[in-house]
Design goal:
With 389 residues, the chain is mostly helical. Helices cover 44% and strands 7% of the residues. It has 17 helices and 7 strands. The strands form 3 sheets. The chain has a 3-stranded parallel β-sheet with strand order 1-2-3. A two-stranded parallel sheet has the order 4-5. A hairpin with a 2-residue loop joins strand 6 and strand 7. 40% of the residues are buried. The structure holds zinc ion (ZN). The site of zinc ion has 8 residues, from helix 1. Residues 5, 7-8, 10, 24-25, 27-28 line the site of zinc ion.
Length: 389
């Protein structure tokens, strides 16, 4: 049975999430722990690390900042500039870059940084999107690989050792540059936090689906190259208190554009604005795990005391897991067109990846959908009954 955290609205179907004996999830516990962090001290540590990596004799960039153009990467760039760094910003272009995403990339370029935008072969990318969707139910598979591999490749190519990542949602530590001993970033470390989600790049080569030469941007540099440059990384979220909402406000002060309305399937207008395929990605998370972006956001806001758990449940019920007919104003059929998939084929793939135990079915066991194709999730009532337990 699906259980929910008694403090936030996260269900235990989330991978790597644990509910303790009091019914509180590990994410809530980890947020609780943040209250005891000495942020002044963390900031000092950060300044120390940056000082060690700042370019001295030969002029070179001080660090690589992987940027999507989103609110968090705008925040990262502004912070690094304010701390006196000369960064090289690197963008791995999203699978289906939106107009507003383009606008926000151009905005970062105007902040006063050198900037590299790396766009992988679009024909290969489309094949990978289709393969990801059909094989593992994740259209964004190539994007999730490339956002980790391309900045690391850039670090090797341009000879810049320090990579300044944003938030580390998986682990509570500062990154390899913070470690006193072995602080080099190796393949194992990369693979640990850049999860490849059930399909590996080597599988594609073995299956001979895609030629090896077309997968260069999706593979990490070899360990020897990483060692030669001394590539390492930190997570800014370990050193500066991280909050998506305040990052968005800061980003807007520096020219970042939000969407003109709440993003489809979301609760807010300031994130996931750069890829038209994100609506599909998030919907598959809902089909597999019974929660999606609205739940993630509601939990962040509950933990920061902005809404009650009861109100969050209402918001989640209203917004989470709606069939993705549109995303950022682009229609599903237009989004699927480059993948050579029709809406009908898409719905069949959806049904194949739906966890049937989580949704209402008829007497024959078929999924019940409303006129808009939306499923009804079971067990919300169960979540409500856990309040105050
Ligand atoms: Zn929780």
């Amino acid at each position: 049975m699906m259980r929910y955290c008694v403090r936030c609205v996260m269900p235990d179907t989330k991978p790597d999430l644990y509910l303790d004996s009091e019914g509180v999830c590990s994410a809530c516990r980890s947020f609780e722990h943040r209250k005891s962090v000495d942020w002044q001290d963390r900031r000092k540590q950060l300044i120390g690390i940056l000082g060690r990596y700042r370019s001295k004799d030969d002029p070179c960039w001080d660090c690589i900042i992987p940027v999507s153009g989103g609110k968090d990467s705008t925040y990262q760039v502004v912070q690094m500039l304010q701390l006196g760094m000369n960064p090289l910003c690197v963008t791995a272009t999203t699978c289906d870059l939106s107009d507003i995403g383009r606008k926000n990339i151009e905005n970062i370029k105007n902040l006063g940084v050198d900037y590299v935008e790396f766009t992988t072969n679009r024909c290969v990318r489309r094949k990978l999107n289709r393969l990801g969707l059909v094989q593992v139910g994740d259209i964004s598979w190539p994007e999730h690989v490339a956002i980790f591999t391309i900045p690391v490749r850039a670090a090797v190519q341009f000879g810049v050792p320090l990579i300044v990542w944003g938030e580390n949602s998986q682990n509570e530590y500062g990154g390899p540059a913070a470690a006193s001993g072995n602080n080099c970033l190796d393949r194992r470390w990369l693979e640990e936090f850049g999860g490849l989600l059930g399909m590996r790049v080597s599988d594609l080569i073995e299956l001979a689906v895609i030629e090896k030469k077309h997968l260069i941007p999706f593979t990490y540099p070899d360990d020897e190259s990483l060692k030669r440059v001394g590539v390492t990384g930190i997570f800014l979220g370990h050193y500066l208190p991280w909050d998506g909402y305040s990052n968005a406000l800061l980003a807007q002060a520096h020219g970042f554009t939000t969407y003109h309305q709440t993003v489809e399937g979301s609760l807010v207008n300031y994130e996931n604005l750069d890829n038209y395929q994100t609506g599909i990605h998030d919907y598959f998370k809902f089909l597999k795990l019974g929660f999606s972006r609205a739940t993630d956001l509601a939990c962040l806001h509950i933990r920061r005391g902005r809404i009650t758990r009861q109100d969050a449940l209402e918001l989640v019920k209203k917004h989470d897991g709606k069939f993705p007919w549109n995303y950022l104003g682009k229609s599903l059929s237009d989004i699927l067109e480059p993948l050579e998939l029709s809406v009908e084929e898409f719905i069949q793939i959806c049904d194949r990846f739906t966890n049937k135990k989580l949704f209402q079915r008829d007497a024959q066991g078929c999924l019940i959908k409303d006129k808009q194709g939306n499923l009804t999730k079971l067990l919300y009532d169960n979540a409500v009954s856990q309040v105050g337990r």
